[in-house]
Amino acid sequence: MQFSFSREQEDLRSSLRDFLSRRSGSEARNRVLKSGYALDRGLWDSMAQQLGLLGLALPESVGGSEAGFLETSIVLEELGRDAYAGPYFSTVAASWVLQHAGEDGATTLEQLASGSRIFTLAIADEGGTWARPGHRTTAFEVADGHRLAGLKVNVTDADTADEFVVVADLPDGPAWFRVAADAPGVSVVMGESLDLTRPIGQLVLQDAPAILVVGPAAAGEILADVNDKAAVALSAEMVGGADAALRQAVAWSLERTQFGRPIGSFQAIKHMSADALVEVETARVLTQYAAWAIDERTPDRSVVASMAKQAASDAFSLAAGNNIQIHGGIGFTWEHSAHLYFRKAKATSALFGTAPQHRDRIADLLAV
Amino acid sequence: MQFSFSREQEDLRSSLRDFLSRRSGSEARNRVLKSGYALDRGLWDSMAQQLGLLGLALPESVGGSEAGFLETSIVLEELGRDAYAGPYFSTVAASWVLQHAGEDGATTLEQLASGSRIFTLAIADEGGTWARPGHRTTAFEVADGHRLAGLKVNVTDADTADEFVVVADLPDGPAWFRVAADAPGVSVVMGESLDLTRPIGQLVLQDAPAILVVGPAAAGEILADVNDKAAVALSAEMVGGADAALRQAVAWSLERTQFGRPIGSFQAIKHMSADALVEVETARVLTQYAAWAIDERTPDRSVVASMAKQAASDAFSLAAGNNIQIHGGIGFTWEHSAHLYFRKAKATSALFGTAPQHRDRIADLLAV
Amino acid sequence: MNPTFSADVQAFQKEFATFLRELVPADWAGAGTLPREEYDAFAEKIRGQLYERGYIGVSWPQEYGGRGLSAEYQVAIAEELTRQGLPQGIASDVFGIQMFGSTLLAFGTEEQKQRFLPRILSGEDKWCQGYSEPQSGSDLASASTTAVLEDGMWRINGQKIWTSTAHLADWIFVLVRTDPDAAKHRGLTLLACPMDQPGIEVRQIQQISGEADFNEVFFTDAMTPEENTIGSVSDGWRVATALLEHERGGAAAVLAIRFAEELDRLEELARERGRHHEQDIRRRIAWCRSRVFAMRLMGYRALTRTLSGEGIGPEGAMNKLFWSEYHRVLTELSMDILGEDVLTLRGRRPAIPDGPDAPGAPTDSAGWITTFLNARSSTIFAGTSQVQRNLLAEKILGMPREPRAESSRGR
Amino acid sequence: MNPTFSADVQAFQKEFATFLRELVPADWAGAGTLPREEYDAFAEKIRGQLYERGYIGVSWPQEYGGRGLSAEYQVAIAEELTRQGLPQGIASDVFGIQMFGSTLLAFGTEEQKQRFLPRILSGEDKWCQGYSEPQSGSDLASASTTAVLEDGMWRINGQKIWTSTAHLADWIFVLVRTDPDAAKHRGLTLLACPMDQPGIEVRQIQQISGEADFNEVFFTDAMTPEENTIGSVSDGWRVATALLEHERGGAAAVLAIRFAEELDRLEELARERGRHHEQDIRRRIAWCRSRVFAMRLMGYRALTRTLSGEGIGPEGAMNKLFWSEYHRVLTELSMDILGEDVLTLRGRRPAIPDGPDAPGAPTDSAGWITTFLNARSSTIFAGTSQVQRNLLAEKILGMPREPRAESSRGR
């Protein structure tokens, strides 16, 4: 019985936290608020090359460190805490598919691990979800490969991605493809993202050249796997964000005085914070377990992934909402990062299944 | 625009409150807790004869005062505040049907108004509800009237009723009948009621002699009407109970000291109480309006009846639950009346439609 | 009990309705269909037309530009405006008419009333409110902006914050400390001060939605004549508190009308997305309907008290708590109906930054998301929900204040 | 990270499972099927059989009757007991084993450990806890029951309340004021005191459900020898507080097992009534499942800390808050599933007054309603939810205590 991280895992966390506080942190958050999203390429390269974060769970043969999903979840939690603005989740999520490309994929994975190419997943068709993309994007074979036609919605980091990993239907079923952002017939329409640190766009494919990554035989299973992993990865991000929002609120409550005392000494503020703490810890243990379950491929991994996602969504929304309330007026000014977390809470909850959708899924999986 | 009670209505309330504090109140509640439910017949007779509460909304010709439903709701609120243990609601509810009996019913209504005979409604069959009783109780005509056969569940005050007003199916549809408790073929099986002030039983009818009150032509409309009125009547009771629970909690919080101060000075207790106050006032205005709407037979009376019932259920549950929590240990001892209100909150919510059922009904009626 | 408008009011409302129909085209779908940029000008235009026909401030005495009608007429006007998809005035009316005007009617000198009130109604003077300070939000009584009387002029120094519409205002009513030696609540005075002077600087504050509806107001030797003192010197706390009750009380009946219209739009959203058959969505809508109807009834109750000359008193705090907490729940529901579509803001943004958007607004995600974000400010402004709960507990339920860390604060 | 039992523990659990299967008939459906009246005797019988085979207190040192095994074994035992529908000990074990025993291991003298611990395990001595007083509930440190040392004997006077199992107990550990002049927290001492003496009177308290699971204990010149002082004189607050952490911490992993079994029964109830297809019911069950699983994981986390020699510390307060508030939600759900059937209590009443009923209990309305009523006491006992939230805010989040009305209370 060991329900805790190993020494190595704790080291990973603390070195990453150090790194982020030096290289990213409140300064980066202010930049996002002042001038909008812009990928910090130097930071990205350092994350990839200096810290090896992108290849963390990839084979050594492509430059990775062969760590597990649990380690990835630690990275995501710390990035979430920092409200990091960059395509880490998108790229890592793409790697969950690209790993199944076999020998052919090695170069791609090397590019991914080195940070030299940015990837993202493009799954849902209009009206579809990540779990059930719909069948409106089609693929057809041509002499030199495939061509894709369709429209993918809610694509994370669509503007910075060099390459898209796309679900499209072949005649015998859905399959996974790679599409380069600069290929002919590929265009991206960015939306105005609620989450200021995660741009969202649509991918328009007009007979765009594509490379088959996984055929229909295995694609469905991988899609299910991607959904489980994405749920837990985003849960980890949200646990980090929720914890940050909680700590930010507490710190402010110690500093701010009203009626001659720090507002953190008022029961209303204390009890709000205690309740948020309980939710954050609930989400934390579920996410931790779910990450382990994914590494171990335990039979309960799908249900615990959903448990984590719904708990983390609730915890983040509560902690980020409380954070604004406790800050009072200053908490909903644009220049204060409180709303950055609040926006992330709502938007991240909506990615790869909302809390109610995951509760429905838990009930289905447990055959209630 | 006048959203307030008239002087006469306020007088009715205060004289009743005076009367109850002298004749019922905490002493009666203690009696219920110590020795269980037993109808205080003297009090009942005074309520009927001295205060005219049973005939309040009945015609003068049968000894009533021709007041409206609004006045009845004031009485119910005060009885609810007092946690009065007697068949007032049951008897008044029966009168809503008996009033439609025409000339024949005059004697019955006189008995009802004078308090000499106690009535109650028996509507739901097993598996049925008050709104949809089911069709398992049947009526057939015999030479000297009718006979009923079936089982009625969740009959309020079944043990004290002298007469039951029963829905049973004739060949051409449901109709209303009167059945005397001491008639052959009539038996009552009492359950253990969650609400200690309102006994609940089953009525077993084995070819029991019955008198037709309202035939199939009008019975359905009256059933709908009874459901609306009962919802608002019980809401009024619950508003009174919720208010009593809130006031009881506040009074205790001023008296009880911990950590050297009255616990009512702690924000946790203050905010719980403020939240309960908001819910009680929400339920109060909705109930007041709904009672007026029933008197005026406005087109929105069914939807506002449901609004009142769901709000009053929530308010009473919250206020009565808070009351226990604020009292601490003493609040869940048998001898303290806090649980009397808490039980009433849950049980009264379940009579004539639960809060979720009423919300479903609101959505249906408003064609959401 | 008769929660309906009197026959006179109904006739008045009918006549008003006829007038309104002439102001807009026959196929008018509501001010919410206008782009955000055009809304304010439209609201200003309509307000001008209403003023010309005497429909602004009808409940004020005739000698100050009103018509001396009862508050019932005011609600009837608001109801009809919303029903016909028109704005309920302009943003600064909350401060000019509802707050400052009402306070002046209660505390002002005859001269002040004559001077200020007609210009508020005509729209010549726009007002804003200077109460909160960076170090004094919930604890309003600790305000530290000072005013010193010199040769019949108040010299004001300090800073106010969260001042809505300050960038558009001609006047500010400002709570200042005039007696630095008195106990915290006792050294305050309320002053009316012109905005157009070198001693006042306004800086806009960008809020959570990205827009700038609030301001900081810096006073550096700003001046206002002694006769602009509202109420007595050092009586500012009492005057300001009464004023806050106007802010809280007056809105209830009128706000409920806007919330009902917003809920219609939410139902439309649910239907558009085929979510209106879901048990959870239906029940929550039903709960919201009940809540909004209760809000209207509470407004009627307050109105009844006003009509009979009773004050609404601390129940004002309940209205504020009630609608702002309701609006959080409502906007959460809109987010749940949008589902994945909360990810991006599409379409029109709301024209109104607090509470429901203008009537007839489309069901675009940008509208609902922005309203959802702004709803977070409603539980903070004009007294946080925590402060409101304290007030309710103390003033209505009679529960004790918390022991003070310092029972009074000599300054 | 490996949240599973080690191979050794798994082997042990398997062996234990085999042993348990011999104790009950092949068609055993769980202790929850027994009538309430028979349950306690059955629990006592099973406990005796477990004791004989060394399955009681396995984590205690061998010299005091335990087997010196890790806490992991304790959880494995509890899990298997519930899985096989058997009681997790008798009611007084919470006080004897989990609370007093654990405290004695930490604070007791060698002589005390030798004398008390083996008799606790064997069941010869049953214990109860004397902390709360009528005037001192949340504010435990204000206890006013006194003890005066005379000729090597403590003479105790005062009253304790909410003392579970006092009517069955041989001993009470009682928090008494031994130094009336010291500050509030500093004048307290913890004593072990025999119950069977003329100076002690026990009166049962009937609780919300109509049953009597609590007591008042009156001390009138009750006596206990000086050697029954637990820890040092005047150090009672520290000892008692540590003891409360045992109460809070130990239960988490084990409780979650019982809650999961209860949730199975709730699902059965929903299915029986055809309510398991409803969106609202399904989502709430899914939420409860997640909550119970999180509770188990928090238990594993605490267990991991215990195994590595770290204390669980103030997180104990979180477990108490977590499960008691969860249980309110769960029992509300059961009421909603019962619908109209909450009106009457039918069938079997629960055998266990706090938390989930015994495994295998039927889905009778009397069971769910009584558990619903009793769930209201769980958010009050052993520190109200309000006190727990204060603790979490202060001890984990580092938020300040409230200013005291009086910073210490000389007595």
From TrEMBL, chains A, B:
Cofactor(s) needed by this chain: FAD
GO terms of molecular function: acyl-CoA dehydrogenase activity; flavin adenine dinucleotide binding
One Pfam family linked to the record: Acyl-CoA_dh_N
Residue ranges of every copy of the Acyl-CoA dehydrogenase/oxidase C-terminal domain listed in the record: 232-364
Keywords of the record: FAD, Flavoprotein, Oxidoreductase
Taxonomy, superkingdom: Bacteria
Record bears the keyword Oxidoreductase: yes
Acyl-CoA dehydrogenase/oxidase N-terminal domain residues: 7-104
Record-stated family: Belongs to the acyl-CoA dehydrogenase family.
Name this polypeptide is given: Acyl-CoA dehydrogenase
UniProtKB/TrEMBL annotation, chains C, D:
Source domain of life: Bacteria
InterPro entries attached to this UniProt entry: Acyl-CoA_Oxase/DH_mid-dom, Acyl-CoA_Oxase/DH_mid-dom_sf, AcylCo_DH-like_C, AcylCo_DH/oxidase_C, AcylCoA_DH/ox_N, AcylCoA_DH/ox_N_sf, AcylCoA_DH/oxidase_NM_dom_sf, Mycobact_Acyl-CoA_DH
Keyword Oxidoreductase: yes
Residue ranges occupied by any Acyl-CoA oxidase/dehydrogenase middle domain in the UniProt entry: 128-221
GO MF terms, alphabetically ordered: flavin adenine dinucleotide binding; oxidoreductase activity, acting on the CH-CH group of donors
The entry's keywords: FAD, Flavoprotein, Oxidoreductase
Domain named Acyl-CoA dehydrogenase/oxidase C-terminal: residues: 235-396
Annotated Acyl-CoA dehydrogenase/oxidase N-terminal domain residues: 8-124
Listed Gene3D superfamilies: Acyl-CoA dehydrogenase/oxidase, N-terminal domain, Butyryl-CoA Dehydrogenase, subunit A, domain 2, Butyryl-CoA Dehydrogenase, subunit A, domain 3
Entry GO CC: plasma membrane
Transmembrane segments: none
Cofactor: FAD
Membership in a protein family: Belongs to the acyl-CoA dehydrogenase family.
UniProt xrefs under PANTHER family: ACYL-COA DEHYDROGENASE, ACYL-COA DEHYDROGENASE FADE29
Name of the protein in question: Acyl-CoA dehydrogenase
